[in-house]
Amino acid sequence: MDSQLNSNTGVSLAWETTDVKTPLIFSVIEFFLIACCVGAIGVAILFKDNSTTVTYAIAALTILVFLILLNQRFQETYKRSTKQLDNQKKARLYSYMFGNDLKVEDEPINLIRSRAIQYCQELVDDYKYTRRNARNIYYVFQLSTVILSGVTPILVLLDKLNTSSGIVRWLPVIFPAIAAIVSSISTSFPFQKTWLAANTTVELLEAEQEKFILGVTPYRFSDVPDEVQRKQKVQESVENFINQVNTIHLKQIQSPQTETKSTDSETAKSQS
After folding, report:
1. Is residue 135 within 8 Å of residue 195, measured between CB atoms?
2. DSSP assignment of 232-248, as one string?
3. What does the pLDDT look like over 113-167, one tens digit per residue?
4. If 0-12 CB within 10 Å is exposed, 13-18 middle and 19+ buried, where does residue 243 land?
5. Phi, psi (5° rounding) for residue 104?
6. Are 235 and 109 a contacting pair, CB within 8 Å?
């Protein structure tokens, strides 16, 4: 078992080293292609009177844009395969710990566990995406409101100085209007609640996933002596894990609907 763990550890370290270098290579290629695009645009502008040079520059720019899109496609494919391998490694972790003693190194068992972990990880990635977008939009709106509200008195002061520019005279009206619109949008759409709710869901899903990966109760099957019962216990643990993940996910989905119904009921009571 020690030799198995050592070999798996060596493969894991080699994979992690490659995993760190490969995204860097994709980024370097993308930056290089973008720099070439900028150079092609510069050449087309400098030699705009030369139709041949402009034609070659446009052709080179088209090829570079195609290579950038192709590089992004390869990068997405690589990230997807990396996540799948990472899920398989997580699924085998419990087998690496007790594999020789428990005889759970069967591929079907690891495949089932890997698929369950992948399902949870996909939900985690979706909620992380929602959390990041809602947080960024909330911060942008809050900072915009503060900046626009702070600039308004300065613009009013400039207007009092009787400047000759007509645009400056309109700015004390335009900036407060924009600030009011941004503030209304920020209060109408619950970006902060969405951000915090998604963050809570991510924490719950990641905690449940770690419990499943490490075989913590109720996902433990190392204490079952019989092999047949052990495989049945593995299936039950996967089923319990999926049910728990769905419970967390459905609770997050149903919470906005519950808040909407409660708000509508309160509005109806106030009108009556």
Report:
1. yes
2. HHHHHHHHHHHHHHHHH
3. 788 888 888 899 999 999 999 999 999 988 888 888 887 777 777 666 665 556 6
4. exposed
5. -115, 20
6. no
